[in-house]
Amino acid sequence: MPAGYPASWSRWTAPGRLIVFTLAATSIWCLLAEFYGLCSMRTFTFFISIPALVILAAMTGADCQRGDGRLGRGVLIGAAAGLIAAMAYDVFRLPFVSAREWGIDSAVPPLKLFKVFPRFGAMILGQPSEQPSYSLTAYLIGWAYHFSNGLTFGVMYTALIGEGGQRPWGWAVLMAVGLELAMLLTPYPHVFGIHVGAVFIAVTLAAHLIFGIVLGLLTRWLSGVWPLPKPIEFD
Fold this sequence. Notes:
- The protein is mainly alpha-helical.
- It is 69% helix and 0% strand.
């Protein structure tokens, strides 16, 4: 084994990918921990999620510098694809959020799809989730948390499939639809006062389909333009 190379569990093998998946999943788990009364979102974020993502970043950097680069490549491709997919997801939802302001509410149903973001921020700050108005800090932290979920979902996806260039991109769509169904089955709608009607389900399902399509296609494309490093022989 090359001197100074990271331990075997930090390579892009099944055990290493499981660790990557688990570390990335802590981003969404901090919200679930709040929902199910395990601990506050603030506590989970500062004492579990942020340290876990720091460890993930350290693993990525170590592999890029001293390893064969496969783990770093997988994490970075997933992070980039997930972040861009989250942006596409929000661009699709924007007309529904701004329907009245844009004067298109006769054709596009107005939906408060972005109302949860300042609530995320407030919960991370240790404040009540429901407030008459929210601070700029709550908005910024809430949006940052939202995009951290998109980014980490991308990392979780690449950790699941292993090599994006060798897997059908449709797996990302399946994952995105699974996330939509899981959201509806959690206390998410109740906690944030969301009416789960046919229009809401149709719009959010379409948004998740777009997230999945962008995630899958972009992961496949990035995997093609970023050549797979040659494996290092280990003793």
